[in-house]
Amino acid sequence: MTDAVTVITAKRDGQRLSDHDIGWLFQAYAKGEVADEQMSALLMAIYFQGLDPGELRTWTAAMIASGDRLDLSSITRPTVDKHSTGGVGDKVSLILAPLVAACGAAVPQLSGRGLGHTGGTLDKLESIPGFRTALTPAQTLDVLAETGCVICAAGSGLAPADRRLYALRDVTGTVESIPLIASSIMSKKIAEGTSALVLDVKVGTGAFMKNHREAGQLARTMVALGEEHGVRTRALLTRMDVPLGRMVGNAVEVEESIAALQGYGPADLMEVTLALAVQMLTLAGIDADPAAAITDGRALTAYRDMVRAQGGDPDAALPRAAHIRTALPAPADGWLTRLDALAVGTAAWRLGAGRARKEDPVSAAAGVICLAKPGDRVRAGQPLLELRADDETRFGPALAALDGAIEVGQQPPSPVPLVIEEIGPA
Questions:
Q1: CA–CA separation, 242 and 293 (whole Å)
Q2: Residue 82 half-sphere exposure, CB side, CA atoms within 13 Å?
């Protein structure tokens, strides 16, 4: 007979968990027969001992089976989604979903909220007056059928085991486990019912994965899980050492996203967005040029349709911060060679744009504007950032986070491609 202590000690000692053990574990945990402290002990054992591919496949399947699956069979367009592991200034989803929809696919994007220095897509969209991110499955399907794209929160019925496990990982020091990260992300994405998925795995100081090796391992693990569960899956490794675009926050990122859909997006933001769009359209079997959908206005129309369908007003004024302050004067004439993404993301968080816990409120108007980016010529004394906050007392902590965030050199930095690697099935 299987019991929690036997499963915990087996993994602690490096043994492989059987399919039966994993299936029993999730069923018993759902019934309250396995306590949170026991599941926490198992998560720590997995943190140190890992899960082999077979264990991980079964573990992920059990998480999916803990709840419902969204049925997209009524959607006539090919379905494809995208997931980012999170970064600073990463408003790609706001542009990408309507862009790919404008090219003929259906994009059912279930997104999350920001935590710490990384922003959340739902927080950004909720800065639009009236925009609803909490939709029922029926409403999600209605919006998707009507506009070709929907960006909303995952319903409570999708992979509910993941919410419980994530809460435990968050307070037990077991977040940084590649198999646990992969199963958390992919259980929700597989449960949402999409036929294809493109992963944007961020690498660098402002990303969760700080080095290429670990990011590649995570990407390959998630691609394998998707393929094993019948979802055509590809991944791009993209750089996150510098904020993406020039605006970091909630309403300000919506503002920059609209500019991008109008054809005025910063080059780095558009490089990543278009690369992901090409991958998504390829997986969906659609031969289309995503850049053309921006040029002719179709992508902007799709965005406005989505906002209206989710209760928002695409013409409403976005929230504005009560207090604005410029910061980080350039120390000398030259070229900006470094602008640390983690420092900028932490500053935006301390200004009110982010949260320390999932329950914390966020300010829609707070954020950081990058007045210069690496590669720009700057003059001594020129402010490099603009800080925005609803509360003036937040400026001090934000400025402290920016200490050492910049470097100015006498030669411009060499340009580097933001897409590091493409990863497909083994």
A1: 27
A2: 36
Which among 113, 188, 189, 246 is annotated as catalytic? 188
What's the pLDDT score for residue 1?
66
List the CATH number of the domain containing 336. 3.90.1170.30
Distance separating alpha carbons of residues 172 and 166, to the nearest angstrom? 10
Question: How confident is the model at residue 334, as a pLDDT?
Answer: 98
Structure tokens, 226: 């998707």
52 is catalytic: no
Please tell me which residue in 169, 239, 246, 388 is annotated as part of the active site. Answer: 169
Active-site residue flag, 188? yes
Angle at 168 between CA 166 and CA 172, to 5 degrees: 120
Sign, CA torsion 244/234/159/37? negative
Same-domain pairing of 129 and 235: yes
189 annotated active-site: no
Q: Is 373 a catalytic residue?
A: no
Q: Please indicate, yes or no, if residue 70 is contained in any of the structural domains.
A: no
Into how many domains does the chain fold?
3
Question: What domain range is 13 assigned to?
Answer: 4-50
Q: Is there a domain that residue 426 lies in?
A: no
The verdict on residue 191 lying in a domain is: yes
Question: Span 141-153, mean pLDDT?
Answer: 97
Within-domain flag for 72: no
- Does residue 416 contact residue 203 with C-beta atoms inside 8 Å? no
Is 83 in the active site? yes
Which residue type, as a one-letter code, is found at position 57? R
